[in-house]
Amino acid sequence: MKEFLQVLKRFAMPYRKYLIMAIALNLLSAVLNIFSFASLMPMLNLLFGMDAQTYSFMPWDSAGSLKDIAINNLYYYATELIRSFGPSTALLFMGLFLAVSTMMKTACYFASSAVMIPLRTGIVRDIRILVYDKVIRLPMAFMSGERKGDIIARMSGDVSEVENSITSSLDMLIKNPILIVMYFATLTYVSWQLTLFTLLVIPGMGWVMGTIGRKLKSQSLTAQNKWSETMAQLDETLGGLRIIKAFIAEDKMSERFKVCCNEFRDACNKVATRQASAHPVSEFLGTCVIVLVLWFGGTLIFSDNSPIDAPTFIFYLVILYSVINPLKEFSKAGYNIPRGLASMERIDKILKADNPIKEPAHPRPLKTLGDEIEFRNVTFGYSDTRTVLKDISMKVKKGQTVALVGQSGSGKSTLVDLLPRYHDVKNGEICIDGHNVKEYSVKSLRSIIGNVNQEAILFNDTFFNNIAFGVEDATMEQVVEAAKIANAHEFIMDSELGYETRIGDRGCRLSGGQRQRISIARAILKNPPILILDEATSALDTESERLVQEALERLMKSRTTIAIAHRLSTIRNADEICVMHEGEIVERGTHESLIAQNGYYKHLHDMQKL
Predict the structure, then answer these.
(1) Which of 34, 322, 75 is nearest to 176 (CA)?
(2) Cα–Cα–Cα angle for 560, 566, 569, nearest 5°?
(3) SS3 109
(4) How confident is the model over 505-522, as a mean pLDDT?
(5) Distance (Å, whole) CA 406 – CA 565
(6) DSSP string, 330-395
(7) What is the strand order of the sheet 435-436 is part of?
(8) Going by CATH, does the domain composed of 119-227+267-353 fall within 1.10.645.10?
(9) Which is more confident, 337 or 585?
């Protein structure tokens, strides 16, 4: 229960007005329910001749207990009604009164449930938004350690489980305690002896229910983990569908997916079986309580000095039977909540994940690059056991193009990822205009950096929106101009709807060269003073490479550029080339000077010529 209350404290506070309204309406519903039952008993006694006593009206401020005055006046009004209209008409009035009371009670019950709907849907919406916002703000290192399918499962399956388990139980947890307290207060008022006996019996019922539901949270956590594995398998399948078909691996992948589905099914079976036992067990235990109270109450009535008469005992049983259902609902909520808490635990692994990329308390202003970028003795590793970059020092003057070359895994991409703070250095520092990049806000730092990567990352949207991505209030004229500079305007206009044509998931309707030119147009429109090119032409054919290279040369004009290249022909004219090997810069200089050194760069150059 402590975990549940913590979840409510975190997410339900913005909706507390709905909680207050629900509590008030449930209180009114409980009062109407008790009053309708209480007024029914004297009417039935008089109608069927069980009580021949004559009653006179007692003023409400008369001496005596309120209980005795209320019972006397109820009998008085019932007697007058029968005397005035006869038993049959009085019975009709009694039925109408009961119907109106029930209508008011059910209206309050409906209203109490209706006002909880905005709370339930609001909490689920807030959790989804929080998870999404957290995911897009966590560093790249977190994403590399997680599976996309698992994150999707937490945003879909786990959040839905929170809605179905925790927020749906919230209504029961508000309504049922009110009903239980009101009913038990009435029972105590009617007969404290019977109520004391009832309270001695009910804890045993609660202990049995708790024993059955104790393992539900761990079983639910296992089931949700299996669901994540299933979603991860589906995500991998969709991402690798071309390879699956190429290697005729459909049967193999199908078998893997069947294993995931079967494991998820087995875990769900255990949870559902344990949860399904809640209703029959609570039904049986509730009946046992009624039987025991019936026996004990009958024993009291049969005694010589009974503290309760038969009509009152009937009323007591009616109220007691009414309290059994809220108790069962309460126990049902006790089953549902552990499932939701298990899902909340998985969601919190994202929400409470630490983000090592910290914003400065008082960030320096940063509008553009004034002088230079400097890497000072930079050391970095993704883990404490393995160092990827070792004591890197490098300067990039404003307007220069510096190229990074070397074998795969030498640390080139990692080095450029440190500049926009996708990761933070372990030792050393990276400076822009003499100040550590950690002194600038992440937003202002990344706003002056443009990226063109080896894999053009596009969205399932129109050409216009992909080019204008991240640039507010971009006009069609600006987008068209950027596309022309990037050699993309012609093939865009050849599409069916021009710039309003959707390009498919990750740009699947475009060729590799077209996707790359769209990403270059996006960088041109952003117009950043610093440009990072990460092997932007390595995966293209000769014709596409020529078009992309022309677009890149236009993009690089008057910009400070750090380019990663495998094809050395694309960086011959760089102001400086840094050759990296196993996380270190082993050579640096211009193309001609490095060829003259007859070292590692010359070896790479000769191999490409060959």
Answers:
(1) 322
(2) 75
(3) helix
(4) 84
(5) 8
(6) HHHHHHHHHHHHHHHHHHHHHHT-----PPPSSPBP--S--SEEEEEEEEE-SBTTB-SEEEEEEE
(7) 389-397, 372-380, 427-432, 435-436
(8) no
(9) 585
If pLDDT is split at 50, 70 and 90, which confidence band does 267 have?
confident
CATH class of 372-609: alpha beta
CB atoms closer than 10 angstroms to residue 436? 15
The 3 state secondary structure assigned to 27-61 is HHHHHHHHHHHHHHHHHHHHHCCCCCCCCCCCCCC
DSSP state of 462: B
β-bridge pairing 530-534 and 449-453: parallel
pLDDT of 315 above 80: no
What is the band of 46 on the pLDDT scale with cuts at 50, 70, 90? low
Sign of the torsion angle spanned by Cα atoms 116, 122, 123, 128 = positive
Measured N-to-C along each axis, helices 216-239 and 310-351 cross at an angle, to the nearest 10 degrees, of: 40
pLDDT of residue 44: 59
Q: Are 456 and 511 in contact (CB under 8 A)?
A: no
The two tokens of residue 172 are 């029961």
Closest CA to 558 of 527, 526, 591: 527
Task: Count the Cβ atoms, other than its own, within 10 Å of residue 371.
Answer: 12
Distance CA 460, CA 375 (A): 37
How far from 470 is each of 45, 187, 362, 444, CA to CA, in Å?
A: 78, 66, 25, 13
Distance from C-alpha of 326 to C-alpha of 19, rounded to nearest angstrom: 18
Q: Determine the straight-line distance between the first and last CA of the chain, rounded to whole angstroms.
A: 71
Nearest to 224 by CA among 216, 235, 214: 216
Dihedral Cα 416, 419, 425, 430, nearest 10 deg: 120
Provide the mean pLDDT of the chain: 81
Kindly report which listed range (119-123, 218-222, 319-323) carries the lowest average pLDDT score. 218-222
For residue range 105-116, what is the model confidence (pLDDT) as tens digits? 888 888 888 888
Measured in residues, the chain has a length of: 610
